[in-house]
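for ur thesis appendix - Tetraspanin-7. copy paste whatever u need, i formatted it the way the template wanted (i think)
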Amino acid sequence: YAMLLSLIFLIVLVAAVVGFVFRHEIKTNFEANLSLALRDYNVTADRHSEAVDTIQRTLRCCGVQNYSDWERTEYFRQRGIPRSCCKSQDDCSEEDLKDLSKAKLKVFVDGCFFLVTSTMESKMSIVAGISFGIACFQLVGIILACCLSQYITNNQYEMV
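the 3d part is after this line
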């Protein structure tokens, strides 16, 4: 049991160190994948398009850096900016979403990349605290399992 807890503890420790060391690469990959998802965005509601819509609605953002990122997509040429960028669904017409100057007043202008990364960084202290607490419980479990094993080994041949 102590060996299993030690293995889990080491896996969590390695994952935390790797996440910390490669955080810049994670950001770069996220930005590239978000740009790719915007480029391939379509109405057929595939997983990537749904993810983009969810991020934009939840964080109240639009595009990667800002709402004008949509101008370079095929979706914009056909339909304009997606409705998930609208501040108010009732006040967003398709004509407004096809014109960037009109859309600026109707959609969220902030990009999603900065909001996602700043949200993740602000929650990192909470994640680190919870991880530290779990690690402490694992270490206590490892120590108690070793003590129990030692106690059983010492008293193995004692008469009851």
